[in-house]
From TrEMBL:
It comes from Polaribacter ponticola. Residues 28-91 form the UDP-3-O-[3-hydroxymyristoyl] glucosamine N-acyltransferase non-repeat region domain. The keyword DNA damage does not apply. InterPro entries: Hexapep (IPR001451), Hexapep_transf_CS (IPR018357), LpxD (IPR007691), Trimer_LpxA-like_sf (IPR011004), UDP_GlcNAc_AcTrfase_non-rep (IPR020573). The keyword Transcription regulation does not apply. It comes from the Bacteria. This is LpxD N-terminal domain-containing protein.
Amino acid sequence: MDFKKTHTLTDIAQILNCEFIGDASSLVKGMNEIHVVEKGDIVFVDHPKYYDKALNSAATTILINKRVECPEGKSLLISDDPFRDFNKLTKHFNPFISSPKSISDSAIVGLGTVIQPNVFIGNNVIIGKNSVIHPNVVIYDNTIVGNNVVIHANTVLGADAFYYKNRTEGYDQLISGGRVVLEDNVHLGASCTIDKGVTGDTTIKKGSKLDNQVHVGHDTVIGEKCLIASQTGIAGCVIIEDEVTIWGQVGTNSGITIGKGAVVLGQSGVTKSIAGDKTYFGTPISESREKLKELAQIKSFLKERKKCK
């Protein structure tokens, strides 16, 4: 998430009321999660297991809960609760602003686009040309929708990420400040739910088609010309490369990659990254030919066992 203007390290430290290590005049342009950080970004870390990953990331500023040696050219913000303070920055730079209208005055809708009754379109939404938004669709703030997009009834774009920290008093939500981006010629079926990124974009690239009741988690990127069938659940931070086909009731783990041209057969559990141009099946996932051989061997074994009784 880029800030509207660049700030100094001192500015950020004052917002958080925390100490810092590094050049007070160093510039901060935004904030991001570890998997999408760039130079000039803030990233947060609150567990020793991930200190090295954060300190060695592309981030320029690390919001951290321990004094550690600061890498050259970087800076540290010392916080007793980086998770809380990351939320504080999201609220400061991207506050929730309610919309009193069904279609916000700040929304931009392209020529030839049809908006059916009872659609909600939030602040700063951009919808391209010749798209069709069917009844009861909800499009949260800052969503980008391309040209020739079709979104069927009851679909929701931009709900918060399912991202929580377990505290003694209950679960604390990491506030989502990212967006949903649909590129040209995307079709979404009825009752799909596409969560926005925590700090970046959840993206569905051009030409991809999703069936009814598909869920896409935060910061996931779905490539071009993908087909995803009904009741599939895709976790957060997944990369689905171009021309992937996923059949019904498939579920995935977070943080995995599904390679270009892969086919995942129905009711499979994608528990790990898989290479492209192959067909997969089962839980845990494996190539369908191997899985079917395993099932045939098990069936044969049980048959022989039955004969021996």
